[in-house]
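Table S2 (text version). Query chain:
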Amino acid sequence: MVDETLMLRKLAQLEEYASQIEEYRSVTLEQYRDDWKLQRIIERTLQMMIETCVDIAGHIISDNKFRIPDSYADSFRVLSENKIITADLCQTMEQISKFRNVIVHHYDRVDAEIVVEILGKRINDFNRYKDAIVNWLKKECV
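Corresponding structure-token output:
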């Protein structure tokens, strides 16, 4: 059985990060490119949001003895396979987890256009993920 207290704490953490990044949603491409401090704040906050989502997935997978994922992206596939998130949300979260790898490992220079697009159009995907987990928890912890 999943540790409901831990899950709620992780979900609250995700919500806090989403709230903190909200003020940066209207950042323009030019503003982002011109301000290394802004880049650092946004990239680190996105990284923490993504890692929190992966952490939530990991706890669910472990507690329910689902198959062991072979990557961060695969964690979301495991949740989808077990009907915790939709296939559409899974695909989105896989893309987001791959973006995290770019930020953390500097495989390429971080593409400013992608960051600004995530800020403007993809932040709500974190809320969709949170809502899916909350809905699953409601069914699971009854």
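Notes on Table S2: The first helix runs from residue 4 to 22. The CA atoms of residues 9 and 77 lie 23 Å apart.
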